[in-house]
Amino acid sequence: MLSDDDDCGECRPGGRTPTLAALTFSALPFIATFLFISIVVLHKLLPILFGYASPGSKRATLNLSPFRFNARRISAFTSSATIALAAVLVELILCEISNTIDPNIRRLAFQFTISLLLLILVIVIPSLEIQSIISAAGWDYAGKSKGTFRIAWFLQAIGTATWLAVFWWTGERLLSRVQTASLSQNFSTQTLTEACLSRFGIIGISFMALLSGFASVSAPWQNMFSRHQPVTESTIARKATGLEATNDMLTAKQSRLRALQRKMSDLPQDQGFFQKAIGSFRSNADLTELRSLEMEIKGLETMAQSLSTSHNTLSSRLQQQNRRKTFRGRLLLAFSYAFSLFCLYRILTSFYSTLRRSISHSHPPTSMASSKPMRESTTSP
């Protein structure tokens, strides 16, 4: 490890403290890596993931303005910064292994990169997730209504505080178990950064173990025991016909709704009492029809979304069926079956070892100390 003593003149070339210009020049590779990865992710990768461009398109932009921020733009900048910081961390580790670049620059870059990653992973990304959940529930952050605005930010504060408490308490419980199992490290004397890193390590390993266990069960089930009904072109054609008919009905209802809204907005305001009385009956009928059209449009939109999802799922399954008939598809299918057999083997061996361990703990073997006097008594004359 590098020495943290600032008075150590032998650790620096010539025993002199590096200037700010020298530090900045030495940090240029890390700054260039961060800027390059973040720009590529922001303008090339995220538009494909968000569905704004296809992977083969030449122009893939997310249309992000630097002066207008909303949740999607903040999420995009956060994602690009997280991936770029992870790339810089990998570069720092490689520089540490090869002992290149100034050690002072590496130490400062490590501290800055890890601090930013912890800030994003502990506070920013969970806050964005909580914000998306609250917005999906119908609470408004824009401030159009004072009541919903205050409730949204109150729920945001409560959700963020709950997440931080759960994160800290879960890590405390897991670290206490690790400390009781291995007394070589005392976790109570850690700094805040070290404590957050320890919690991320423990929680990350636990989630990876859970995901690997789920994959080891899901892979054999999907490959060997789950059988889907074969998809044909006629099935997809029927789904497409139903989706097209639903979209036509939705378009007709929306056109009727717009015409009714224009009719209600074009009613004259200066009328006599008799005309107002007759107009009230007409407006009530138009209002009833308007509400009925809105309910029908919502139902048709839900039906169209469901049919579109089903159509896309059936199309992907048909593509998978056709792909399995090719040489590449058969090769990938053979690898998937081999992985499923390996998962079954690991599940059976783990179950067998656990069973043997439980049986050995329930029936401990007879100790040599207790059997030795009996052996001596039988051999004595």
Summarize the SSE layout with pairings.
Blueprint: H1 20-26, H2 28-50, H3 71-98, H4 103-136, H5 146-181, H6 192-225, H7 233-265, H8 273-324, H9 327-362, H10 368-379
Give your account of this protein's structure.
With 381 residues, this protein is an all-alpha fold. The protein has 10 helices and no strands. It has helices at 20-26, 28-50, 71-98, 103-136, 146-181, 192-225, 233-265, 273-324, 327-362, 368-379. Helix 6 (192-225) packs across helix 9 (327-362). It is extended, with a radius of gyration of 33 Å. Mean pLDDT is 76; it is low at 1-15, 54-60, 65-69 and 367-381.
Spans of 5+ residues with little confidence (pLDDT < 50)? 1-15, 54-60, 65-69, 367-381
Helix and strand pattern: HHHHHHHHHH
Radius of gyration (Å): 33 Å
First and last CA, distance? 68 Å
How helical, in percent, are the residues? Answer: over 70%
Shape estimate: extended
Number of distinct beta strands: 0
**Main beta sheet:** none
Instruction: Give the helix tally.
Output: 10
Multimeric organization: single chain
| Portion in beta strands | under 5%
Mean pLDDT: 76
Decide which structural class fits the backbone: mainly alpha
